[in-house]
Amino acid sequence: MYNSRKVRYISSPEFGKIEVPKKTAQSNNIKELAKIQKEKDEWSKYMNPGGFKPTITSHFRKPQNEIDFLNHEMVLIRSPKDCGQEWASFRLSPFLSKPEIKQYLMKVYNLNVKSINTANFMGRIVRDQEKAGYFRKTDKKKAMVKLDFKVDPELQKHI
């Protein structure tokens, strides 16, 4: 691969065209450079039998890797209040945003979501009897999701 920033070429009638790194050349002797080039060619034949060399097509940054599957739990809960038959309540990770919740429900569970309302709850402060101190339980998030169909009333009622 020709890259004028990193490589310079030396040609001699005896050995032909030799590829040498610009910054760090191991030797100035043409015979040693030719030997190194020959070893490099043999290695590239073994590692790349098709002879295809990669080319630099762009100097732009590569896009970040997409997350294929979110590793967050989403639990259907019963609401203490009557919200209507189109609404369902979920307890989920506080790190999920509304678009992520919508995409999660639409792609994983094939639910058509009309709207989402969310509420964040801080964890309670609890006294630890063993260590004689206090700690905070984990934070929670509740999502009220409006669907395009009626939800079974048994799933909505709080018992």
From TrEMBL:
Keyword Glycoprotein: no
Transit peptide in keyword set: no
Signal sequence residues: none
Keyword terms, alphabetized: Ribonucleoprotein, Ribosomal protein
Taxonomy of the source species: Eukaryota, Sar, Alveolata, Ciliophora, Intramacronucleata
One Gene Ontology term, aspect cellular component: mitochondrial large ribosomal subunit
Protein name: Large ribosomal subunit protein uL23m
The family this protein is said to belong to: Belongs to the universal ribosomal protein uL23 family.
InterPro entries reported for this sequence: Nucleotide-bd_a/b_plait_sf (IPR012677), Ribosomal_uL23-like (IPR013025), Ribosomal_uL23/eL15/eS24_sf (IPR012678)
One GO term of the biological process aspect: mitochondrial translation
GO-annotated molecular function: structural constituent of ribosome
Biological source species: Stylonychia lemnae (Ciliate)
